[in-house]
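> forwarded from #structure-qc
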């Protein structure tokens, strides 16, 4: 069953639906007996001067984000080569997760979902260099984790899994440890890009409450390294660290 979203989600007054029922009852019962609770920790490991910009001292803040536990090939957050959903657009451009969280809560194929934020609870951006946030999920063998958070020094870049979700089990054994190598930087394709830390349409140069404040690109979700913009991008592991720990 999905959990109540807390923290910033309370402002969105989201009501989470229960998971749709009857797909393969016998296999579901078997999987349920192997359910594991995990803590997922997200850390901003960017350092001053990482980007050649005065904004945020050259660090890369991260926004509050969303997560979803799902099974199968269809990632509920995004699909490479397809237009971004309105919820992913809001995360990638402005760091606001509530719309995507509501969509995940209504998705009957999503087993567990919610919003994550930094421990200080600040919204847009929530994570500053050195900040950490975490959330807990419950999953069974065969389940995968997808997540998304804004690369705040950009027009519409976001960190997420590689597109197919992160495996939470190797066979029947719960995954444990650093999974940052399964995180990628994506371009949502919704707003025309300038180099990280530059231009008037990136979040640090805007009113924090502003949304959709830049020229539309009308593109598709693409790996940021493959957009052809020619920008110098920091290594994923120099900005974000994601760790998964079984706790019960």
């Amino acid at each position: 069953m999905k959990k109540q979203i807390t923290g910033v989600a309370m402002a969105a007054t989201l009501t989470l639906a229960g998971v749709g029922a009857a797909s393969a009852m016998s296999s579901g019962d078997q999987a349920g007996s192997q359910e594991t609770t995990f803590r997922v920790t997200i850390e901003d490991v960017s350092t001053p001067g990482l980007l050649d910009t005065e904004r945020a001292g050259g660090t890369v803040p991260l926004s509050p984000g969303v997560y979803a536990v799902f099974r199968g090939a269809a990632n509920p957050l995004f699909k490479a080569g397809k237009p971004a959903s309105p919820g992913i657009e809001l995360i990638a451009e402005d760091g606001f997760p509530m719309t995507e969280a509501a969509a995940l809560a209504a998705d009957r194929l999503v087993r567990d979902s919610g919003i994550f934020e930094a421990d200080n609870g600040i919204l847009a951006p929530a994570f500053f260099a050195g900040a950490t946030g975490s959330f807990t999920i419950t999953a069974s063998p065969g389940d995968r984790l997808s997540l998304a958070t804004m690369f705040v020094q950009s027009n519409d870049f976001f960190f997420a899994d590689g597109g197919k979700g992160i495996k939470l089990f190797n066979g029947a054994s719960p995954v444990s440890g650093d999974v940052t190598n399964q995180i990628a930087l994506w371009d949502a394709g919704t707003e025309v890009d300038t180099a990280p830390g530059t231009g008037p349409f990136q979040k640090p140069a805007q009113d924090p409450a502003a949304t959709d404040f830049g020229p539309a690109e009308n593109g598709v979700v693409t790996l940021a390294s493959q957009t052809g913009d020619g920008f110098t991008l920091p290594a994923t592991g120099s900005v974000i660290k994601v760790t998964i720990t079984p706790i019960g």
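QC bot note: The chain is about 10% helix and 25% strand. The mean pLDDT is 84.
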